[in-house]
Amino acid sequence: MTPLKIKHCKHANYTRESHVKLTTSQFHPAAQVIMTAGLDQSISLFQVDEKTNPKIQSIHLERFPVYKARFSADGEQVIATSINNRMFYMYNMIAGKIIPVYNVRGLEERKVKEFEVSPDGLFLLLLGTSGYMHLLSMKTKEFVGSMKINGKAIAATFSPDGSTIYTHSDDGAVYIWDVKSRKCLTRFIDEGCLRGMSIAVSRNGQYVACGSSSGIVNVYSQDTCLQQTKPKPVKVIRNLVTAVTSLAFNPTTEILAIASKKTDHAVKMIHIPSFTAFSNFPVVGQKAIYLAQEMDFSPRSGFFSIATNRGKALLYRLKHYSDF
């Protein structure tokens, strides 16, 4: 297999470094911009130019260390949750307004941390306690309804069209939900998984990747997940030895990035469809990836970023792709 053509650029937040953990590094869905956020209570936007990545703006959220931040599907808003807070923020970038959202009627949760934005822009999915997951309308921020699994919902993701939700639980089961009816379509056991940690669906809808506490990533065909209660993985990836805390498919479904925030330099790029790791990433001897918190690919795969616990959003140029 040919090596990955990759160039290590100046980190994305070079013009506004953080000295504490970054929890978020996400590319804008349309503009050549990247967002970072973290425990320094701020959200920052940078222009991605490979040279200095100049800062566009930074907003400070008082007493609000950011647990997670996400662009809305249209890229006009940012949603941010904190570590120990029931309230969350919506930042309207067009209007320049920061809107606190709290006391959502019907939402019985003491704190809101983990969430996902539906790709169609309609919903916000909040992962609650005791196996509950809640849907909120992105437009009105009103409570739509809840779903419940056995055990605890650890990670969730939407299908590319936003019609279904995949949930990985702490007992190793994966639940697939219909968004419209909020009914469970099916449930299957992630093979050999004692505790689910992460989940991702490829942009073309072909694969479902499930990361576990043992470092194993099982990749399934989406069709078999919907049809079988004990599907066999297409591939079992054993490149990590600590819990797989984040997974990201690139937009063309040619690469699956897998990472663990439990140990340094625990990031691998897996080639699809051979499902073998690119041997030249991370670069041997280059000690840069300190506890990878989160990863993202730019909209057309030209860039890849990793948020680290040392406050840097590492940035790489993937030369196989000509566009941002």
UniProtKB/TrEMBL annotation:
InterPro entries, per database record: Utp18, WD40/YVTN_repeat-like_dom_sf, WD40_repeat_dom_sf, WD40_rpt
Signal peptide: none
Pfam families (alphabetical): WD40
Keyword rRNA processing appears in the UniProt entry: yes
Domain of life, source organism: Eukaryota
Record-linked SUPFAM superfamilies: WD40 repeat-like (SSF50978)
Record keywords, A-Z: Nucleus, Phosphoprotein, Repeat, rRNA processing, WD repeat
Stored PROSITE patterns: WD_REPEATS_2
UniProt-listed GO biological process terms: rRNA processing
Primary location class: nucleus
One GO cellular component, as annotated: small-subunit processome
Transmembrane helix among keywords: no
Compartment(s) of residence: Nucleus, Nucleolus
WD repeats, residue ranges: 158-187
Family: Belongs to the WD repeat UTP18 family.
Function in brief: Part of the small subunit (SSU) processome, first precursor of the small eukaryotic ribosomal subunit. During the assembly of the SSU processome in the nucleolus, many ribosome biogenesis factors, an RNA chaperone and ribosomal proteins associate with the nascent pre-rRNA and work in concert to generate RNA folding, modifications, rearrangements and cleavage as well as targeted degradation of pre-ribosomal RNA by the RNA exosome. Involved in nucleolar processing of pre-18S ribosomal RNA.
Protein name, entry field: U3 small nucleolar RNA-associated protein 18 homolog
Species assigned in the record: Chiloscyllium punctatum (Brownbanded bambooshark)
Organism lineage: Eukaryota, Metazoa, Chordata, Craniata, Vertebrata
